[in-house]
Amino acid sequence: MNTDLERLQPYPFEKLRALLANVTPHSGLRPIALSIGEPKHPSPPFVLHTLANNLDKAAVYPTTLGIVELRQGIASWLERRFDLKHVNAATQVIPVNGTREALFSFTQAMVNRDSSGLVVSPNPFYQIYEGAAFLAGVEPHYLTCNENNGFIPDFDQVPDTVWQQCQVLFICTPGNPTGAVMPLATLQRLIELADAHDFVIASDECYSEIHAPDSMGPIGLLQACSAMGRDDYARCVVFHSLSKRSNLPGLRSGFVAGDARLLAPYLTYRTYHGCAMPVQTQMASLAAWQDETHVVENRAQYQAKFNAVLDILKNVMDVQRPDAGFYLWPRTPIDDQDFTRRLLAEQNVSVVPGSFLSRDVDGYNPGAGRIRMALVAPLTDCIEAAHRIREFIESLNK
Questions:
Q1: What is the pLDDT of residue 265?
Q2: Consecutive 10-residue runs of the chain (398 residues): their mean pLDDT?
Q3: Are 354 and 372 in contact, with CB atoms under 8 Å apart?
Q4: In this structure, are 301 and 158 located in the same domain?
Q5: Among the three residues 251, 269, 291, which one is the final residue of a domain in this structure?
Q6: Which of 14, 106, 222, 231 could disulfide-link to 10, CB 3.0 to 4.6 Å?
Q7: Whether 114 and 239 share a structural domain
Q8: Whole-angstrom distance between the N-terminal and C-terminal Cα of the chain?
Q9: For position 10, which CATH number holds?
Q10: What is each CA distance from 182 to 92, 194, 204, 359, in whole angstroms?
Q11: Are residue 114 and residue 246 in the same domain, yes or no?
Q12: Is residue 210 a contact partner of residue 299, using CB atoms and an 8 Å limit?
């Protein structure tokens, strides 16, 4: 057996189940879940119709590279969304079964097993980055994200020795759970560092389309490359998904795009990995990437929830509107795990302790004393949950 499996920590939701195992939720209040970031807005009907109308494609073996139409549709979306001059659909795009499996498998393909090698990631982070590093035979290295650095790592403080050992740098913009968006200058500084130390930048951008309706969408890594005149996107790849953008988490559809020199061996890996996207799913995905109307409506719904919830909590809780994404990352007046347990027991609202989404480094956990709240439930539920959280905090103050 692969002994690196023993290094994997339980996923945050496994820890949450253990934390709440002996907690009895308030029986007089219906449960409201703000814990899991699973979109609850309706999936676009036209995407589901496209899926249903192509079910006969279940009789066809899909290719790992995907159908030409989907790859071209993704390339066109990238060009429109991020103002890119050209994306080669044949060599710079690969459809994947959601970003989670792609983030993991990409790491396995890119990493050269070396006991001194590093996969560098923000802290707090999406736990797949850490697990992918362990199972690729290298070590994770964590970069603190807290209020002192605007929840974006201070990359200039990272020692050259770390960059020299780095094989893959994961960034998440907008961040999970912080919602922080990396500015253009920071992304371009990372590209310079990757050039200097020869590592790959893997940018997880699956929350990029959840932003204020009246604002420009977050800058992407390929956009930063293009602004530097680098349309080969050397050392850079991005990961996008339909789960959040289009409320299709069960479709398991996304893509990886960027440096063709990296995607060619990754495609070879995937042919052995055996994870081609079913053709009917590809057809439905193409329909989703070609439409923006449902995405605009999606943003408006999240904006309404942020407006309402922040208005209720702003006077009792240290909480700020994120740059993008659908999470709130507030401070808790008591220990984050105690807060989570008591909130469920007294108000039947579930959240995730921030310490479950981070790692201790030199005795410091940047997620401790915070919780993650996913505003995925319907507006009325989010409003009721906010009122219950406010009532709970007020009871603590008494």
A1: 97
A2: 92 96 96 94 97 96 96 98 97 97 97 93 96 96 97 96 98 98 98 98 98 93 97 98 97 98 97 94 98 97 98 97 97 98 98 98 97 97 98 93
A3: yes
A4: no
A5: 291
A6: 14
A7: yes
A8: 54
A9: 3.90.1150.10
A10: 23, 16, 12, 21
A11: yes
A12: yes
Are 222 and 233 in contact, with CB atoms under 8 Å apart? yes
Residue of 162, 106, 172 whose CA lies nearest to 136: 106
Stated length of the chain:
398
Q: What is the pLDDT of residue 274?
A: 86
Range(s) of the domain holding residue 129: 45-291
Our count of domains for the chain comes to: 2
Q: Which of 273, 291, 309 is the last residue of a domain?
A: 291
Same domain, 195 and 124: yes
Are 14 and 140 members of one domain? no
| 316 and 280 within one domain | no
CATH number at residue 107: 3.40.640.10
Name residues whose C-beta falls within 8 Å of residue 100's C-beta, 6 or more positions apart in sequence.
128
Our measurement of the distance from residue 305's CA atom to the centroid of its chain's CA atoms, rounded to an integer in Å, reads 20
33 & 128 share domain: no
